[in-house]
Every structure is written in C-alpha cells, then in structure tokens.
Amino acid sequence: VTNIFWFALVPILAIFLLKSGREFAESGINVLRLRPRRRMFLKATLRDINDMAAHFIRAQVLLAALSLPVYTVVLVISGLQYGLFLGLFAGALEFVPLVGPLVAAIAILGVAFVTGFPYIWVLMVFLIAWRVVQDYVNSPRLMHRSVKLHPFAVIIAVLAGGEIGGILGVFLSIPVAATLQIVRASVRE
Fold this sequence. Notes:
Blueprint: H1 4-31, H2 36-78, H3 83-93, H4 99-114, H5 120-146, H6 151-188
Helix pairs in contact: 1-2, 2-3, 2-5, 2-6, 3-4, 4-5, 5-6
C-alpha cells in the first residue's frame, strides 16, 4: 500500500520519457561544455540508452497486452465473480515486472476466497502456469530481442532490483542492467 504511488507514477513517467527522451538528453548535453569528441561519445551512448528504454517500455506494454485477454477470458469463463474487472486489472498490472503480477494474483485469489469460489485450486494452477509462461518464456525472449539482455540476466536483474529498490527497483532493474551493458560496450569502442 505504501508503494501504490509508484504503480501510478512509473508508467506515466515511462510514457513521457519514451516520447521526449531524446530531447531531454539533447538539452542535458547542451548544458555541459564538453569537447567535441566527448560530446559525440555522450550523444551516441545516450541515444543507445534511449532506444533501449523505448524497447523496454514497448516490451512491457506487449506483455501486458498479452496478459489482459488471457486473464480476462480465463476469469470470465471460470465464472469468478468480478472476473471481467479482475482480468482487466491483472492485465494492466503486468506492466510492472514481478510485483504487478503478484498483486494481481493476490487480488484474484482474495476475491475467489471471499466470494466462495469453489475452484480456487484451478485458479492457482492457472496463475502459476501463466507466470511460468510469462516469466520464463515471453519476458526473457522479448527482453533479449528488444533490450539485448540474456534471459538469465533479465531474471537476475529483476530479482536484484527488487531486493535493492523495491517496486521502483523491480521496474528499473532491466533498463539499468541494459544501460550498464551499453556503457560498457561504448567504453570498449
């Protein structure tokens, strides 16, 4: 509950950064008085970071877009009370890595328990199976293609980010790991 602020703020900031990231970077570089060679290095690195962040946000939106109909169809067909609302809610929360799906699962199982849904175990099996598909198939493949991180690095980054920075750390962990990879590659050149 104390971190609910981040659930709303992080996606909003992500959209603005996606839309205006290049302009922000350009303005920041112009404020600095750098030699032409360092300016070019910084511009190229920030351009790569901005592209990576855009790919990451798109991948998160795609994961949420995949989850929204899956959750909604399964919950409505199962006959769970408020299934349509819970499906839309769970699909939207998929945008926030790790924590969003956990909150969604707690909400779904909580409503199932409170309303006396007779097949809670079926919902648990579905939630576990969908998490396995999302976390170990869809997400690593999307992140590997779009953010150029190895699937194992994605999993480690999310776990480390959650441990270090909570919800914000979970969301920022993949972009930070990819940024470190970009800076390392830029320095080598």
